[in-house]
Write a structure and sequence with these properties.
The chain is mainly α and 57 residues long. It is built from three helices and no strands. The protein is extended. It starts with a helix and ends with a helix. The mean pLDDT is 94.
């Protein structure tokens, strides 16, 4: 028997990615989400760019 599709994806994601979690003020997050939506950018992409920018400096 083979693994189901979600199990294969989970195994890949666990191997390739590391999850982070952060608690932020609700008002800050709402403002951030509005701005991201207006610019057509997702949260993950924003965080990825911010980290890369930080590491390149």
């Amino acid at each position: 028997m083979s693994e189901t599709s979600w199990q294969v994806k989970k195994k890949y994601n666990d191997r390739v990615y590391k999850r982070i979690s952060v608690a932020l003020d609700k008002d800050l997050v709402e403002e951030w989400e509005k701005r991201l939506k207006a610019e057509g950018m997702g949260k993950s992409e924003f965080i990825r760019r911010a980290i890369k920018n930080y590491l390149d400096k």
